[in-house]
Amino acid sequence: MIAVLDLGIGNLSSVRSGFLRAGEETTVIARGEAWEELLAARDDVTGVVLPGVGAFGDAMFQLRASGLLNVVRGAVREGRPLLGICLGMQLLFSLSEEHGSHVGLGVFPGKVVRFPNDVKVPHMGWNDLTVVKDHPLLAGVRKGDYVYFVHSFHAVVQDEQHLLAAAQYGRTLVPAVVAKGSVCGTQFHPEKSGPVGEKILRNFVAICRAWTAPKGEKAHV
Amino acid sequence: MLTKRIIPCFDVLDGRVVKHVGFLENRRDAGDPVALAERYCADGADELVLLDISASEEGRLATHRVVAQVAEKVNIPLTVGGGVSTVDDVRALLLAGADKVSMNTGAVRNPQLIREAAHRFGEQCVVVAIDAKLNETMGQYEVMVKGGKVGTGMDVITWAKRAADFGAGEILLTSFRQDGTREGFDITLTRLVAEAVNIPVIASGGAGKKEHFYKVLTEGKADAALAASVFHFAETSVGQVKAFLRQKGVPVRWTGTGTPA
User: Any idea which GO molecular function terms this record carries (chain A) (predicted)?
Assistant: First the structure.
């Protein structure tokens, strides 16, 4: 069971249908006090998805107002598999320049900036991936595989180690997949990216199912 | 590299796919939407567009059910439009499973709808559909509404720019004269709009053979090309069009189906 966080902005049915096609059930979490509380109520939850459409600032506001920020932080602290999709991936960075300046979750050092004006914005459509680092999330994904993007802002990765795959748009090399420990993110929409996206969702499901609590260091409540 | 998209479109009337020639007359049944959606998806379609042309509330609800069924089955983006005139209409379609919502007459009547929808749900899901017809008297392409029946006196280029400024994420541009004729896309119109705005433009109306797609995506500078009847009645397939484009050096998402027959 995958917990899909509901920021009240976007439509979650695409993400839920995507996971169903990938062979996994989802449960929507709209409010949260603490990660431990969520697990106490839903002990079958194996991983977390942070989807997202809309604006960065609004989404961060919603994360705080709904208490879901604690759920995200708790999951990260425990080392649970967490996948941010599109804006959900951007929220995991330190900072965004979308409509002013907004502080993000800070899992990935780096900031989120707008595309230059010499390309059409949003970056909308199918673009091909260059995989730069092997990772279980990208098992079976090859260089040149196409995935579906739709976004006007993109992340700038500060630590190259976090970059798993990228896509070229104009003169920008767009970070397409990032990972750090148990946390990963895709700038594209795997749930809308045909068979390649479905493979990535299946990989995430497998990562979640294989997860076991790190021995000896239970998260502090 | 970002690829050019090929998008099959359905007109849905009370839960069934239909195709009109010249917007109004000659309605023909073109099948079950879910079965068609799955077929196109398997054939390499990059997105799907579903336009609700139901006139009644019951028809509209039937379409919402169809949207939900299609969204559940396909793993490519789904745009839905038809009769969208309020933010609540947008929300209802997004909740039914649409990834993007297309607005036409509703946006012309109230351009703030674009701004509100973009603000609430994000620019990425706001598609402004423009029906264009060459008006000889104006010497311009005129924006048509109500399914192409009513002229607005508004210039298409001006409206497209304004829609983009208001927060549209994409323009779906239909040439009224060309729609359903299968005589080719309106290259002049498409290029004018594509060069005027900094958001993606989907060309629509007039697709009859694979060469038409090539022309509008290169000379016409469209980011995507949409067609209905040419695919429904199997004159050519999505796979064949993409194989042809690929052979001609146009970047397309290649899924390995279809030969450039």
Answer: glutaminase activity; imidazoleglycerol-phosphate synthase activity; lyase activity
Residues within 8 A of B (CB atoms), A 159-218 only: 168-169, 189, 191-195, 197-198
How far apart (Å, rounded) are the C-alpha atoms in residues B76 and A196? 11
With beta carbons under 8 A apart, name residues in chain B contacting A126: 2-3, 5, 46, 253
Question: A123 and B123 in contact (C-beta within 8 Å)?
Answer: no
Report the C-alpha gap between B173 and B170 in whole angstroms. Answer: 10
Residue B256, in any domain of the structure? no
Residues of A forming the active site = 86, 189, 191
Contact B76 A152 (CB under 8 A): no
User: A98 CB near a chain B CB, below 8 Å?
Assistant: no
Residues of A in contact with B124 (CB under 8 A): 53, 122, 124, 150-152
How many separate domains does chain A show?
Answer: 1
Based on C-alpha coordinates, what's the Rg of chain B? 17
- Relative to beta strand A153-157, strand A108-114 is antiparallel
Q: ipTM of the predicted structure? A: 0.91
Beta carbons within 8 Å of A40's beta carbon, 6+ residues apart: none
Q: What is the model's pLDDT at position A81?
A: 97
Q: What is the CATH number of the domain that holds B44?
A: 3.20.20.70
pLDDT tens digits along B215-235? 999 999 999 999 988 887 778
- What are the tokens at B233? 């009645």
Tell me if chain A has a CB within 8 Å of the CB of B77.
yes
Interchain contact B242–A (C-beta under 8 A):
no
The pLDDT mean for chain A works out to 92
* Interval A55-84: pLDDT, tens: 898 899 999 999 999 999 999 999 999 999
A215 occurs within a structural domain: no
